[in-house]
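Bench notes, afternoon.
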Amino acid sequence: MGFVSGFDTVVNNDTMFSIVPIIVVLGFIIIVGIIIYRIIQGGMEWNDNNNSPILTVDSKIVAKRTQVQGHGHHANGNNTMHHNTTRTTYFVTFEVESGDRIELKVKDKEYGMLAEGDIGKLTFQGTRYKGFERKK
């Protein structure tokens, strides 16, 4: 029986070389699955919105919020080239006469024109914001 070093055991063991491709393929399948799921989910929401009636109801704006997502990148690791991107999504919560609350995504220009406490007519279709006409 000869001397066996730890290196020889690792080199002669093909387990590592057979597991890595499986892990890579599983990761790829999971990522593709998530992308397909999100596409189907978005398509179903789009279809539901298109099949929903356009409603106009009395409402009050009770809350506003933003969601900011950002990403930064430094080239060459020396911080001389920066690339930062951010995306802001705007939401407004409306309370209707029944007391139910609806949070809808709105465009940035609409968000700036709406204020908490405003009362008026909300027009929406499913989860799609169509407009808000403030009472005078």
